[in-house]
Write a sequence for this structure.
């Protein structure tokens, strides 16, 4: 099952690029600089990791254009500080440690109570969770990025 491209549900949004920064702020800077030059009416960028997206933020600042930057990460203080400074417009935070704990608990229940083989159960569990995450990201990423929820932090 494949989720619809965001532009199907939101025809006013046109995705002009989907490129990997490979966790490198310098590469993200280069990519976003090129995308801005190729798309002078660009209005937003959705990044995948806050540290890498500092390079994207620098490219946006250098362009002098009012381009929104939404990033994601684990909710570290650095990301929150950059939202407060205006470097990022929003940050989508996910709690990796809590996710790991929850997945470990489910996996432990499957192995311990159902007597399933540990290696295969873990492999299938991680593959299944990754597929679910990819599906949900495709389904909800535009809605998440365009929401305006305030944090108590």
């Amino acid at each position: 099952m494949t989720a619809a491209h965001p532009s199907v549900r939101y025809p006013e949004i046109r995705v002009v690029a989907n490129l990997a920064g490979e966790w490198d702020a310098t590469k993200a800077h280069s990519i976003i600089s090129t995308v801005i030059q190729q798309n002078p009416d660009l209005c937003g960028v959705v990044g995948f990791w806050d540290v890498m997206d500092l390079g994207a933020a620098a490219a946006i600042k250098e362009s002098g254009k009012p381009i929104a930057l939404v990033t994601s990460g684990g909710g570290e203080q650095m990301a929150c500080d950059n939202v407060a400074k205006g470097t990022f417009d929003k940050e989508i935070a996910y709690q990796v440690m809590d996710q790991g704990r929850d997945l470990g608990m489910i996996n432990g229940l499957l192995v311990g109570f159902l007597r399933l083989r540990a290696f295969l159960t873990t492999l299938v569990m991680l593959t299944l969770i990754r597929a679910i995450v990819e599906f949900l990201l495709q389904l909800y990423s535009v809605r998440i990025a365009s929401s305006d929820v305030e944090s108590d932090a």
